[in-house]
Design goal:
This protein is of the alpha+beta class. Helices cover 41% and strands 27% of the residues. The strands form two sheets. The protein has a two-stranded antiparallel ribbon with strand order 1-2. A two-stranded antiparallel ribbon has the order 3-4. The mean pLDDT is 90.
Length: 75
């Protein structure tokens, strides 16, 4: 387990990732990482994955295209 420190960044709060975590994630300053919730409720931090990013973009596009239908179904 790698402890992470929360720090004030303007009006937000950021997480400082130590070098060891950056190496394990295979990321560097400026890269994108994803914080996702697993089926067990546990939060996971993972490196940018173009395949995942494409799937997310397709899902967002689908939701935009069918926004009205989703609203009707939600009633």
């Amino acid at each position: 387990m790698i402890p992470l420190k929360l720090t004030q960044v303007g009006n937000s709060v950021g997480v400082l990732l130590p070098k060891e975590a950056l190496v394990k994630l295979g990321v560097e300053k400026g890269d994108i990482v994803y914080l996702t919730e697993g089926p067990d409720g546990e939060m996971r931090l993972s490196a940018y994955n173009p395949g995942v990013a494409e799937e997310i973009a397709l899902g967002e596009e689908f939701m935009d295209d069918y926004r009205d239908a989703f609203r009707v179904l939600a009633k």
